[in-house]
Write a structure and sequence with these properties.
GO molecular function, one term: metal ion binding
InterPro entries: Mopterin_OxRdtase_4Fe-4S_dom (IPR006963), Prok_molybdopt-oxidoreductase (IPR050123)
CATH architecture of the largest domain: 3-Layer(aba) Sandwich
Oligomer: single chain
Strand order of the largest sheet: 5-4-16-15-14-6-7-13
GO cellular component, one term: membrane
EC number: 1.2.1.2
Enzyme class: oxidoreductase
Number of domains: 2
CATH class of the largest domain: Alpha Beta
Distance between the termini: 54 Å
Number of helices: 15
Helix content: 25-40%
CATH topology of the largest domain: Rossmann fold
Radius of gyration: 22 Å
Structural class: alpha/beta
């Protein structure tokens, strides 16, 4: 029986836990973890389902890790000039540094930094410490914390007990909020320099809305933190800040145009973020991973899962944590692909140097430089939506893991207007497709449907739809 001290891969919150291999995977609480003090959300408790074993394959035939890596190297070399490299930050900083050395020509971390002000980079990459959220007097939410980042709720409740006011700028009323403002009414929001703003930043974020939130915070002199969906997103962003990057949208466009024919994904399943018709245009899809995914790859390079790896992760606060495993197969495999050898220790020292620290200590948050960003070229215009499906991205959605929320949320007025029947379905049409879903009545904005599960017709976070009985 093996026990690993590790971090939940569900998001970048940095929740510590133990994984126990006891014939099957078991999750144990780790009370000493500074990010979550042992508490876990339902995704964290579902990790035995997340870590589905995977085997190395070449064109569907099982093979060894080494042969799969060598075949990947051959295909990347044969497609030189038309290969792209994708990683959302689901692996260690050391592997990400090695990956960058391979991917110098076309690196994609998913985030669209090209369209955002450079002086806001650090603000987007590293959030404020959770302790500052607990100590705040007024907190503004641009997320649904229950659905998207459940462990932040504990910090919000602690702040409320100390007298904090919580304002939600969201599509439905949130129980934790003292004040609920709809996104279209954001002009009613009263921010001050003592009002930390909590939003999120991910590959499918609307860049204009990110600019708008940055602009609101800048105008008020308020601190802002962007929560993120992948376990080492902060690490990926910090380590790649000087690298040339392409956005996810640019990658999709280049695959569709045929300028990218080979895609190498490191610990990142592209199935949930890149349209299937786009993936079908690739000559080679290569996936290096520690758990099974949905994408049908030409080459799968399978090695140890994240919790067995040796390496460093950085959470949303910028807190660096050492994983409890000793595995370096991921690094060795990247070496085979690159035709070189990647040593852990030099890469680890490079990670510490880039963070400006001498040791990895999960109980200390490094002092990151947080320069003030300039005026953001965006106006704080409201989100306008009529008859729209809003996708509330959460860990289950990002990783394609089955969940029990197979319904859409809408308000009672919509139910009555469409004469929907209790226990019945609502028909949702968009982009030439139609689906029928169960529904739940919630205090949601008029003409908005919320979903925490992929239903097959989405086009980003907000999809215009037609609804009927």
């Amino acid at each position: 029986m093996n026990v690993y001290s590790t971090i939940c891969p569900g998001c970048n919150f940095g929740c510590g836990l133990y994984i126990r291999e006891n014939g099957k995977l078991e999750v144990d609480f780790r009370k000493s973890s500074p990010a979550n003090a042992g508490k876990l959300c339902r995704f964290g408790m579902s990790l035995s389902r997340f870590y589905t074993p995977v085997k190395s394959t070449i064109d569907g035939k099982e093979t060894s890790l080494e042969e799969a890596a060598k075949e990947a190297a051959r295909r990347i070399s044969a497609g030189k000039g038309s290969a792209a490299f994708l990683s959302f930050g689901n692996t260690t900083c050391e592997e990400l540094l090695a990956f960058q050395k391979i991917a110098e020509s076309y690196l994609c971390t998913g985030a669209n930094f090209e369209a955002l002000p450079k002086d806001a980079y650090q603000t987007l990459s590293v959030g404020i410490p959770y302790s500052e959220i607990e100590a705040a007097k007024h907190i503004v939410l641009f997320i649904d914390p229950y659905e998207q980042y459940p462990l932040i709720v504990r910090r919000l409740l602690s702040a409320r007990k100390k007298g904090a006011k919580i304002t939600s700028v969201w599509w439905k009323d949130l129980p934790i909020a003292d004040e609920n403002i709809r996104p279209a009414d954001v002009s009613k929001l009263q921010l001050t320099k003592d009002s930390p703003v909590i939003a999120d930043f991910h590959p499918l974020s609307d860049v204009e809305q990110v600019k708008n939130v940055l602009s609101l915070a800048k105008n008020a002199g308020a601190k802002i933190t962007f929560l993120k969906p992948f376990v080492n997103s902060t690490g990926a962003y910090l380590l790649s800040k000087d690298a040339k990057q392409k956005s996810l949208a640019q990658l999709v466009e280049d695959i569709n145009k045929g300028t990218v024919k080979t895609l190498f994904c490191l610990e990142s399943d592209p199935a949930g973020l890149i349209p299937q018709e786009t993936l079908g245009k690739l000559t080679n899809l290569i996936v290096q991973t520690g758990q099974a995914g949905a994408a049908k790859a030409n080459v799968v390079i399978a090695h140890e899962p994240l919790y067995r790896k040796k390496g460093t992760l950085i959470n949303n606060e910028g807190r660096a944590t050492a994983l409890g495993g000793a595995g370096t197969n991921g690094l060795e495999t990247l070496g085979i692909v690159a035709g070189t050898k990647f040593e852990f220790d030099p890469l680890h020292e490079s990670v510490k140097k880039m963070l400006g620290i001498s040791a990895i200590d999960e109980f200390t948050i490094p002092k990151y430089e947080r320069p003030s960003y300039g005026a953001v070229p965006a106006s704080a215009k409201p989100i306008e939506a009529k008859n729209a499906l809003v996708s509330v991205y959460n860990p289950f959605m990002w990783y394609g893991l089955a969940d029990d929320n197979d319904f859409v949320e809408l308000n009672l007025g919509v139910v009555r207007a469409l004469k929907l029947l209790k226990g019945g379905n609502i028909r949702i049409k968009s982009n030439g497709s139609s689906v029928e879903k169960k529904f739940k009545v919630s205090p949601v904005q008029d003409n908005i449907l919320l979903t925490g599960k992929r239903i097959g017709i989405e086009k980003g976070t907000l999809t215009p739809v037609e609804v009927s009985r």
